[in-house]
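Supplementary Text 2. Reproducibility record for the structural model of the 140-residue chain.

All settings were left at their defaults, and a single model was retained for analysis rather than an ensemble. We include the record here because the model underlies the residue-level annotations in Supplementary Table 4.
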Amino acid sequence: MSIADYMSTKLITLSMDDDLGKAKAIFDQHQIHHILVTDNKELVGIFTDRDLYKHLSPAIGTYKETHKDTAYLQKKIHLIMTRDLITCAANLPLNEAVVLFYDNHISCLPVVDEHYRPVGIITWRDIIKILALQHKKRSE
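Retained model, structure tokens:
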């Protein structure tokens, strides 16, 4: 079993110059936790919902919202995104991916091609689901 068998290939990406407002809209619309950041189709970073909420005021969208709160929505993704990425190829065995998650304390693993273009993503939630389904199948 390789990552290619389980990764999501329906990728949602941002560019480095997109802002927090666009990222927030994507997170809200798609119910995801990670967005890959690309520059000329090459993977350059990752932006998580945790990154977003660390930089947003809790007053956003409420009657307490101020101009300063909404100004933060204009902050560019490249100022916040994670640049030091752990990635893998689609042919990586699933058990090696689990080790990458554990050893590097990461919550997602972008899958890239030989040109460092993203072709998929797998998250710790996906890994838990895979393991749970395998366990259930063995228990039947």
